Amino acid sequence: MRGKDFFEKINGKVIVSCQALPDEPLHSPFIMKRMAYAAMLGGASGIRANGIEDIIEIKSKVDLPIIGIIKEFYSDCDVFITPTMKEVDALYNEGVDVIAMDATDRIRPNGETIVELFPQIRKKYPNQLFMADCSTYEEAIVANELGFDCVATTLSHLRNNSEKNTPDFQMIKKLSNECSVPVIAEGGIETPEQLKKVFSLGVHAAVIGGAITRPMEITKRFIKAIQD
Predict the structure, then answer these.
(1) Residue that wins the pLDDT comparison between 78 and 3
(2) pTM for the full predicted model
């Protein structure tokens, strides 16, 4: 699935992020496959998944477009969402519909910036769809200019000075009004009311993760509510 077909399929709809890191209880390609299957049955229009093993398992059960990432932690930087060409190569070879990358202005492994790295990636993979995970409006505009196919507010919690990850409605609205590529709302969408609000601001689609697929974190929120 490429270009127009992908964006038509997710327009006005919800993508569910099905991920679990090694230190989380649900870390397992099999479990992520079942999680993605449940999301599909619930009406999700796409899946965001981390790692080749999880993606292979999910694709074996779920007939939805996949936004693929690889979280790889390097000692010399804070960027870990598809940080280098190596991870891009692996995702491309697996055949994900969209490759999402950290598109912040932070320094990447080997001292590179996204402005230096992405033109190389676009030249190598001219027909692949790429999603820019951004933390600010300015980063999203740069990503648009670099040639990303869509921009997302995935990392807005890094810069919004909030104690918790909540939707950056101001950033979402400004990008929806001014960005020339589809805007994906992602990050901190925890309630149906928040979801309705981000769509009212003009986003193309929305990604929901922890509010659906991280029961340990969901439980913690409920426990905190009664403790407070």
Answers:
(1) 78
(2) 0.94
